[in-house]
Amino acid sequence: MRILASLYRFFSSWVGVIILFLFLISFVAQGFIIPSRSMVGSLYEGDMMFVKKFSYGVPTPKIPFVEIPILPDFFGNKHLIAGSGPKRGDLVVFHPPGDDKTYYIKRNFAVGGDKIIFTRHGIYLRPFEGDSYIEEHFKGYHIDEFFGEKYVKEPYSREHIGIHYGEKDGRVEPFSSYEELYYRYMSSSITNNHIASSRRGIAMTPMEYNGDMIFYREVDKDSYFMVGDNRDNSEDSRFWGVVDYSRIIGQPWFTYFSITLKDSIESQSQEEKNRYKIRWNRIFKSVSWLESHAEKFRGEYRYYDHVKAIDE
User: Fold this and answer.
1) pTM of the predicted model, to two decimals?
2) Which of 130, 158, 181, 198 is the most buried (most CB within 10 A)?
């Protein structure tokens, strides 16, 4: 009892509170706010969430706000305790390549060894386990063949109805992520009629297939291909590359608050009076609840013909 009383007195002091706070945000959960619409309609800009930091091992703790590691990287993977990595379809919080201070949240589209093809008709996955795995785990999905191999079209879209196309920067407009990737490819520097080896903002290999341009990527070992559910309004692994395990932080856990922002088009945010309003129906909801209660985007948000095929 004396030990418990001593601990109570210690953690009631300012020093104890600070130490407890640092422990919780380093090893248990850390809060962050979703700033953009890359995950609409599963998660919304203005959702304030706690990240469960022990989902995929324990990341090396950092000093809050300045993001400076408290301990050395003992094992070379930026984790004090390594764990299993994200599964396909998981929502994941991570640092994007080359940026150790910014936190992103995307859906893990593919794991190491998987192959991805991105066309004007959508994103396709070939799991490294092969055809038998596709037949067992993706029943009811549309299957296409590329280069003699089977690929699943838009995996996870049946389970997660928030996945959609047709929105860019908070507006519905006829400019897709495929066109963005193609534009960056075509606008890259050209030398002696050959595309230069370095292409800005493209992390997939362009190639011709049946007279059309497609983009291909095989995921590196211990890496993950992250894609936003709001397919046309997401800078993700299609543009800046795969995410190594060392950059994985954890999983979003639950919302503790949520407000509309200036890009919240569903709330008619073009009128200032509709901004910064509390979304009461999203407070203290788990991510699994938010996903299961996601609202399917209305027809005007599903702009492209190739998007309609998601529901086929």
Assistant:
1) 0.86
2) 181
Are 179 and 153 contacting, i.e. CB atoms less than 8 angstroms apart? Answer: no
Could you give the CA distance from residue 88 to residue 91 in angstroms, rounded to a whole number? 9
- Exactly one of 52, 62, 78, 106 is catalytic; name it: 106
State how far the alpha carbon of 54 is from the alpha carbons of 25, 155, 173, 301, in Å: 11, 26, 39, 36
66 three-class SS: coil
Is 55 one of the annotated active-site residues of the chain? no
pLDDT at 302 over 80: no
Q: Enter the tokens of residue 41.
A: 């309609």
Tokens of 75: 């094992």
Ranges 62-66, 163-167, 270-274, 276-280, most confident:
276-280
| Residue 143 token pair | 């299957």
For the chain, the average pLDDT equals: 84
Residue 37 · residue 45 · CB < 8 Å: yes
- The answer to whether residues 137 and 128 touch, using CB atoms and an 8 Å cutoff, is no
Is 38 in the active site?
yes
Distance CA 92, CA 107 (A): 6
**Collapsed DSSP state (helix, strand, coil) of residue 311:** helix
Q: How far apart are CA 35 and CA 51, in angstroms?
A: 15
Catalytic member of 26, 36, 38, 269: 38
